[in-house]
Amino acid sequence: MDATEKVHCLIIGSGPAGYTAAIYASRAGLNPVLYQGIQPGGQLTITTEVENYPGYPEGIQGPEMMVHFEKQAARMGADIRYGLATAVDFSGPVHKVQIDEEKWIEADAVIISTGASAKWLGLESEQRLNGFGVSACAVCDGFFFKGKEVAIVGAGDTAAEEALYLSKICSQVHMIVRRDEMRASKVMQERVKNTPNIKIYWNSVTDEVLGDKKVHAVRIHNTKTDVKEEVPVSAFFVAIGHQPNSGIFKPFIDMDEAGYIKTIPGTSKTNVEGVFASGDVQDKIYRQAVTAAGSGCMAALDAERYLSAKGLH
Q: Mean pLDDT, to the nearest integer, of 179-194?
């Protein structure tokens, strides 16, 4: 086994939360080491145009924006590395994190910014057209299909909220629901059902998203009647939930039933002293780049105060 490396502040993950934490931690003199994880740049690297992040009046491509974040963190002095955290040991006063199943790092403070991953249906066409009309975020991408017909799949509160959001900007929303009822709260269901330009397809699954270079239709399969129909749409939104990337922390960190890390309200502190969480791994409500960045800032400031109180900074 490689010799253990000791670092002052370790940041796990490289979306807006991780990079912002790295910028603040660097400026505070914490000499942060950041591991980028399996998807450097996080979910924004699978988003095309970002129009709702302040400071970009013309909008910016998601991947380009994350390059900016990375360059800024590097310029401040963050040690940015490619690698994946594969195990942790938070049982003692020193926090241990394993990278790529081989190297162990000991850190005085750890900031978890591992994000969440959208759940997908698992269709080949869904991945092929991702960014070309297929999206897992209606709030991010719905605007680009203003006045057009779109489809959304899902039956929970998020799907209902996103369908209602889309109904305000799109001419028609085709909502595909797997069973003969929705999981969403009663009030959300009523709103969806009472919105004239939302059409619900009950007992239905998505057979395929159709399109060559971009989405032009969706094939919907009614599992009760076995009837398939092609519905012309310009976009296909998947709203079947997100999975927080928190599995390796389960033995030590308090989480909710869905696996989102619990933080002390108003802070980024977890139940383990010296371990902080920011971004989508602990936020299932807002899930925006700007809120993730804000919580990354909080985590770095909390880490700095913790290290100062411990006499380590």
A: 94
- What tokens does 204 get? 């239905």
- Sign of the Cα torsion 205, 150, 15, 269 reads negative
Which residue, among 9, 245, 10, has the nearest Cα to 114 in the 3D structure? Answer: 245
What positions carry a catalytic annotation? 137, 140-141
Cα three-residue angle 111-34-242, rounded to 5 degrees: 60
209 sits in which H/E element: strand 204-211
Place of tokens 């850190």: 107
d(CA 80, CA 132): 31
Residue 113 and residue 246 in one domain: yes
Are 102 and 79 in a shared domain?
yes
- For residue 220, the enclosing domain spans 120-238
Say how far apart CA 166 and CA 187 lie, in whole Å: 18
Kindly state the DSSP code that residue 145 receives in the 8-state scheme.
G
Residue indicated by tokens 């670092």 = 7
Per-residue pLDDT tens digits for 128-140: 999 899 999 888 8
Domain end position, chosen among 219, 238, 257: 238
270 Cβ contact list (under 8 Å, min separation 6)? 112, 253, 254, 261, 262, 263, 264, 276, 277
